[in-house]
Write a structure and sequence with these properties.
Helix content: 40-55%
Strand content: 5-15%
CATH topology of the largest domain: Rossmann fold
Largest sheet: 6 strands, mixed
Strand order of the largest sheet: 1-2-10-7-8-9
Shape: globular
Number of helices: 14
Distance between the termini: 50 Å
Amino acid sequence: MKNTMPTFTNIEEAAARIAGNIHTTPLLKSRTFNEQTGTITYFKAENLQRIGAFKIRGAFNKILQLSDDEKSRGIVTYSSGNHAQATALAARSANIQCLVVMPEKARTSKRTATEGYGAQVVLAGKTSEDRFNRAMELHKESGYTIIPPYDDSYIIAGQGTCGMEIVKQYSDVDAVLAPVGGGGLIAGCALAIKTLKPTVRVIGVETEGADDANQSFRQKKLIRYEKTVTIADGMRNLSVGNLNFEMILRYVDDMLTVSDADVIEMMRFFFERMKIVAEPTGAVAPAAVRVHSDMFKGKKVCAIISGGNIGTEDFCSLLNYS
């Protein structure tokens, strides 16, 4: 498969390819949340996935289909955290040398976990562009095979397996909400969901300080920001991927935004009422059900908790716990 728009068949192939390497994550619900919002909401708990995030789906799908030559040269990727960990673990499982370019201020917990999976971490700048440029330099210098974090057919197809699971687990769902960073999760899930059940509304969610995908969706052209400001580190990229954007325009019904404060309150709810941990990006889609509850009154909703990777100090600081 070249780096062109994947098909539903590619998602089915991805599901078969990565079976045994990922978890089928559960749907969780809260009576209190549903009473507060007037919805019937389930949360797709990708925070309980291997490496604590959905990213393992795409990473395994990409790496397991590499040729022997590509594997022998080692791989390099660029990521603020979760894709870094996912690629490192998938590479270790396949016995492949792995380099990961992370931002200079990467969350300590994510950098430590990435190194713990056996990857060598290289720090580069603050933006997604800084990381990309350094990874390209390493690719040219040493021939490492590039493993993109989101703008890639195999990555998107792998993430789409999450959408397949949602439809199977919640067959009468009316709307699915997913966070949008680079766009791999929303693109893959939207393709899977619209193929299996076209009537389901697929909605992407961003924070207000990183709403490039929302603006791109509204203006029907790819918008690139110079800077994003948000606590959700998975949304600090400056634009969604080109392929991802094509799929968003084709399969996604709407985009919503929430504030960083909304995200923190959702994290608090998960921890105090449901006894689960969500990182900021992981709480974005669930927060949208709460903030925009009028849109979903009486509806059957699934919101994806995309990840739960956050260190104790960062978690306590955001929630003002001492």
